[in-house]
Design brief:
globular, binds zinc ion
Length: about 130
Amino acid sequence: MSFHIMYDHQCKNCEAYYIPYDEDVVCPNCGAHEEEVADNIVSTLVSSANYQKKMFGIYTPIAWWIGSLGDHIALLIFQCLDAYEAQAEKNFTEFAQIYFDKAKWGNQLYMKSNVYGLTCKVFEVLDSKKSV
Ligand SMILES: [Zn+2]
């Protein structure tokens, strides 16, 4: 059992897939600003990450059925979080930047900045809860 991220979104202008996780997030492909904001996505991702970590000791689920854009992006985020914990040199934002630069995006390279921004948000929340 795991927490899935049931969320799908496509830009109304260019049909690019991305997650408007904050009010100021624009389409990473065409720059359009849409009204939809996925308010709960960061807290949902944090809950899912915490659940995985508690149950299995790592963020990345062993079996993860991808049923939505949210699931797809969640997997990228969890893998990045695990890769980050396996090293101790860089701070997170620097690490994530390099990590996603190296990732394979195929024809969805535009997603990189969106996934990177969302990953940093999730990390911030995870990190702030750790130190309390
Ligand atoms: Zn667009």
